[in-house]
Design a protein that fits this description.
Number of helices: 2
CATH architecture: 2-Layer Sandwich
Structural class: alpha+beta
Number of domains: 1
Shape: globular
Strand order of the largest sheet: 1-2
CATH class: Alpha Beta
CATH topology: Macrophage Migration Inhibitory Factor
Distance between the termini: 35 Å
Strand content: 15-25%
């Protein structure tokens, strides 16, 4: 039962765009986890660029750098 919590800088995505992203993520999860549509949940958080460092980078990315499967190519010191 995969759950995806996607955080990204505000893009003002339409409902159709959000659905397209969700559909693509579900396809990947079904392929690699042998999941069904009903077992997947997805949450999307649009974060204002000015808040990225304090809300995402420092507490989530930087604090877990050693555990990240894919590390970012940027720093925010």
């Amino acid at each position: 039962m995969p759950h995806v919590d996607l955080k990204f800088i505000t893009r003002n995505l339409t409902a159709d765009q959000q659905q397209a992203i969700s559909d693509d993520l579900i396809a990947v999860l079904k392929k690699h986890f042998n999941s069904s549509d009903d077992s997947v949940s997805i949450m999307m958080h649009e974060i204002p660029a000015d808040d990225w460092k304090s809300e995402v980078y420092q507490p989530i990315i930087q604090a877990n750098m050693n555990s990240l499967v894919k590390k970012p190519g940027y720093t925010m010191d």
